[in-house]
Amino acid sequence: MASDNDTQENLQNYLKKEILKDAKRIKNKYPPISEKVNGISKSLKIKNIYELKGNLNNFIFITTKNYAKNPSYRYFLAILLASQSSDLLVSLAKEFSKENRLKLIQFSLYPQHFRVGLFSLKEIHGKNNFSEAVNLLKEHRIIFRKDFEKLRKLIEQV
Predict the structure, then answer these.
(1) With bands split at pLDDT 50, 70 and 90, how would you rate the model's confidence at 3?
(2) What are phi and psi of 20, to 5 degrees?
(3) Pairing with 144, which of 29, 138, 151, 152 sits 20 to 30 Å away (CA)?
(4) Angle made by CA atoms 33, 23, 8, in degrees to the nearest 5
């Protein structure tokens, strides 16, 4: 049985050779992503953000430093749900993300533009679940846009 360290190295090699080879690194300073662990807020400092190309167009890949010592890095695949986030849009996206263990963040990729987008994230633990994460995030985006369109039509009718 492979150890966690071997699995982490395999994932890193897979990401470098297959996913990040054509990716564009976005160079900015970013605030950390926070998550609640047992009611305590923990922060994940962002190491790198990549804009993926090819068949993974519209996806963002985020590498964070783990607050726990092992593994030292955590990897997230993200897709933009809305370029301008609001509480209403978060509430539209919340149900699907809870059912499928996705994280929602309001995050600015380009802080100089003062635009905070709504992103859906899926943590990548191994190379086997990468394609599953891609499909899940694409599905989330499709469902979110359909729900948003329904809401827009309801508002127009009022």
Answers:
(1) low
(2) -95, 5
(3) 29
(4) 60
CA 144, distance to chain mean position in Å, is 15
The residue written with tokens 């690194």 in the block is 25
Burial class (CB in 10 A: 0-12, 13-18, 19+), 87: exposed
> Mean per-residue pLDDT for 4-24?
79
Show the tokens assigned to 27: 């160079």
Helix, strand, coil abundance in the chain, percent, nearest 5 = 40, 30, 25
Mean pLDDT of 119-146: 91
Q: What is the overall mean pLDDT for the chain?
A: 87
- On the 0-12 / 13-18 / 19+ scale of CB atoms within 10 A, 39 is exposed
Instruction: Report cis status (omega within 30 of 0) of the bond before 31.
Output: no
